[in-house]
Automatic annotation (TrEMBL):
Main location: membrane
Protein name (database record): Amino acid ABC transporter ATP-binding protein
PROSITE patterns: ABC_TRANSPORTER_1, ABC_TRANSPORTER_2
Domain ABC transporter: from-to ranges: 7-249
Compartments where located: Cell membrane
Organism: Isoptericola sediminis
Similarity-based family: Belongs to the ABC transporter superfamily.
One GO location term (cellular component): plasma membrane
SUPFAM superfamilies the record matches: P-loop containing nucleoside triphosphate hydrolases
Pfam families membership: ABC_tran
Amino acid sequence: MTAPPLLSLREVRKSFPAGPGRRAGRRTVLDGIDLDVGEHQCVVLVGSSGSGKSTLLRVVDLLEDVDDGQVLLDGVDVADPWVDADAVRARLAMVFQQYNLFPHLSVLDNVTLAPRLVHRRPRGEAEEAGRALLAKVGLADKARGYPDQLSGGEQQRAAIARALAGGPELLLLDEVTSALDPELVGEVLDLLLELRAEGTTMLVATHEMDFAREVADEVVFLHDGRVHERGTPAQVLDDPQRDRTREFLRRLR
Ligand SMILES: Nc1ncnc2c1ncn2[C@@H]1O[C@H](COP(=O)(O)OP(=O)(O)OP(=O)(O)O)[C@@H](O)[C@H]1O
């Protein structure tokens, strides 16, 4: 029997209130999503603003409940009542568009907070590992600095170091370069390419098609909460079969 993929979504549905008050009804944001991410794989979500990419990542990171369908980690539905949600969260880490570093903590304390509080690692050990991670992301000299003393690109690299600190099995990346000035985008993408080359398992939402082309095992084009087209980067980005995918890519050029 073959092992299940690390992450599987099966017929996942999610809706939100379409406006204030009950009469506004609900808007379907994920409309029956099927998706697999195998160990050491990188799946990249692309699609227009509002197509559901962030919501999909938030569902995987247990920040949103699904209305219907399953989110399976190693074949186990994370919504099952006997599943320990904290244990699931410890296997995942998400990096957000806006870094979300704690402004009152040093860079090193941001990186070591979860290992110390959640994983109960002794301070010395957590700091040693944290410094190694900061060196890896090119911030060895910023360990004692504070987030507001860092550029956007440095803050995002610190956020990536923090995400890696718990040793996640799956890294979720939500438009991590969207808030950066264009000249800082490259330094973050280079770091992600390095992580990818090391075999880090990733589920990524991005508008950076060149990056998608370089890292993705599979590109998934979302439209209106559905998988509209999927395949290798060459298939979806260079030879799309559907008009909507072509139109989306044309608008990006
Ligand atoms: N908590 C919420 N309450 C109501 N509507 C929401 C909520 N979160 C997301 N939505 C709506 O769901 C839709 C999909 O949003 P989502 O952020 O997942 O899209 P996206 O593809 O990530 O867009 P972008 O590329 O702009 O980040 C949008 O119309 C959004 O307004």
